[in-house]
């Protein structure tokens, strides 16, 4: 090859535009990959990378690999991670007490009411409140309705007395447990299995998918299908960083997240159904169904928590949720 030709090839290579390095989005969460949140995070990764044609690469870190419950929001605020899906209970300790609406026991009778509230003016108003903390809420994701578990049967109200029950850090959840006569024990999710195994706490509350994926049936002998509360998430990003993205990238990522959210809600109910079937099949945990009368006793015992937190959460938010439930109730 002549020196002239070599020079032309070198100059041509230098003239080619350099391939821009992909934008890295670290998506951190605290649950297992095979939960609804875990699967939806991977779905978002797949969609985002395909829809941006490789301009974005999403790195998903499950099971508290990067940050535990108490650390992850601070990590997002300093841009150590770019995306989270923390549970709704995490925002109360951040000073956004309105989000404790979703912690109130027996507020949402079913998913229809729940989604009407979170996708409507109430839910959107709450997302706007995140901006005061430098965060941007992009979507609500479901986990499911929670059930009580313990190492003794929970058939009736009196069975809760004296139990040390793990909760997420939330004053509403603490009040809920005290209303039942139990002792609330706030604790990060990654610590729960070990605490149950060592007897530091006696029981907890979870949707079925969390209970199964974290192998709690190995350390909890009884599960009561109480459906007393809701566990869900908000997909959040750093407000300044997200709005600083190129418009085409940001809009594409938001569409990828919209599609991932549709997927997440579709699988959440089915995942919980399958998880409960697997818990029953494993046979390590006895599963109890509350009689209607006992479920009503629990509900009545915890209703004063609603009234106690009206000044904190907002009467309009709680009563707006009541109206959403009334609108979907069957006619008498």
Automatic annotation (TrEMBL):
<dbReference type="InterPro" id="IPR038404">
    <property type="entry name" value="TRAP_DctP_sf"/>
</dbReference>
<feature type="signal peptide">
    <location>
        <begin position="1"/>
        <end position="20"/>
    </location>
</feature>
<dbReference type="GO" id="GO:0030288">
    <property type="term" value="C:outer membrane-bounded periplasmic space"/>
</dbReference>
<dbReference type="GO" id="GO:0055085">
    <property type="term" value="P:transmembrane transport"/>
</dbReference>
<dbReference type="InterPro" id="IPR018389">
    <property type="entry name" value="DctP_fam"/>
</dbReference>
<comment type="similarity">
    <text>Belongs to the bacterial solute-binding protein 7 family.</text>
</comment>
<keyword id="KW-0732">Signal</keyword>
<dbReference type="GO" id="GO:0015740">
    <property type="term" value="P:C4-dicarboxylate transport"/>
</dbReference>
<dbReference type="InterPro" id="IPR004682">
    <property type="entry name" value="TRAP_DctP"/>
</dbReference>
<dbReference type="Pfam" id="PF03480">
    <property type="entry name" value="DctP"/>
</dbReference>
<protein>
    <submittedName>
        <fullName>C4-dicarboxylate-binding protein DctP</fullName>
    </submittedName>
</protein>
<keyword id="KW-0813">Transport</keyword>
